[in-house]
Amino acid sequence: MLCFSSYLSMASFRRISAVFLLLCSLICLLHGVSSLGINYGQLGDNLLPPQQVVNLLTANNITKARIYDTNPQILTAFANSNIELIVTVENEVLGEITNSEAGLQWVSTHIKPYFPATKITGIAVGNEIDATDLLPNLVPAMSSIQGALSQLGLDSNIKVSSSFSYSVIKESYPPSAGSFKSELSSVMSQLLQFLSSTKAPFWINAYPYFAYKGNSKEIPLDYVLFSNAGSSAGVTDPTSNLHYDNMLYAQVDAVTYAISKLGFDGIEVRVAETGWPSKGDVGELGASLENAAIYNGNLLKRQLANEGTPLRPKLDVYIFALFNENKKPGPTSERNFGLFQPDGTSAYNVGLFGSSSTSTNAPSPPSPSLSKPPTSATNSTAASSSPSIPLKSSSSATNSTNASSPSSLPEIGMTYSFGAKATTMGSLVYIFLCVLTFQFCMMI
């Protein structure tokens, strides 16, 4: 009797262990999905209505999004979707909400009616901050919004921060030399004190594309496209001895070092915007379908692997952008940063949909070298404004591919946790594993 009881106990233990491992696998899968964020811009006259956008994000298991205002239609459409949403206080409003009464009115009007049905997790006070005329109002506006959230009991759920243009960085190479522009040090110190006290992140817009376009002779294409993974190519910081196989991580760590130089070490740096255009004007070197697919595809793979930078173990990234937006001003590239066309079809395959693409002879990018990759303000600017880099009159034949030929895209491995078809494949695989586990448990 004792032996039989012991056998049952052992069998139960094994079954429980198998189920536990299965649940752990599922949790890891979901955690990978939740690492993806995307910027939902609205500068187009032919975009999907907000409810269909929610369906698009849900079908692709995209669980985080950021918008550039507090559009009531979008906030209403996102209700009960379980998609985490960051909203924005427009730049032109900052001067109007610097006192507590105005902050309370803004939060009561734009946040409280929609929360918690709409899962608002952050408020960006201003977007792509770099202009000195906005800086004096920035911290007072953030403080008034924070005070209003506290007064309404929402401060534990919603973090207040801002997003900055990379032009606020004076030095970025090597990353350990990272520093803010000296004229911004006073405001930055106040801002960082605010973020430190509220445990909110510092958001930066970082675009290796603009750095490459501005100085392709010194910056290897592989370095900006995340194509050096698993190799010794890239750059090594002579001070920290940390190795960087891609420019984005170097840019992010430069910001972390800049923050540290002002006396703040515990503030998390997150990427508010990064991306690559799938089309550009003749002088916009590197803007092509192939390069966009490689950059965003490689970035997505790293996000799914929960990869951090060499300096920090975790990195949250929001890709720019959800759609190609036909009303964005500036060169052609500005209207072609989207992963999707305005009607919701994919602009190119980055592994979201599970469709395999045919590998053809892609142009060979230059070999990465240890040449200094400039990431100064003139070479790294956000996609939501016209880049300040002069356009080069250069043939795109050597560093970009024919943007009119999607079939020439290199094969990017399918990530079955994303996309309608991909999600179906993932579900089938998961069900198959469940059945196998159940049969194994019954055989014990």
Automatic annotation (TrEMBL):
GO biological process terms held by the UniProt record: carbohydrate metabolic process
The EC number(s) this enzyme carries: 3.2.1.39
Record field: catalytic activity: Hydrolysis of (1->3)-beta-D-glucosidic linkages in (1->3)-beta-D-glucans
Keywords tagged on the record: Glycosidase, Hydrolase, Membrane, Signal, Transmembrane, Transmembrane helix
Residue ranges crossing the lipid bilayer per the database entry: 424-442
Alphabetical list of Pfam families matching this protein: Glyco_hydro_17
InterPro entries: GH, Glyco_hydro_17, Glyco_hydro_17_plant
Region span, Disordered: 355-408
Biased segments, Low complexity type: 369-408
Protein name: glucan endo-1,3-beta-D-glucosidase
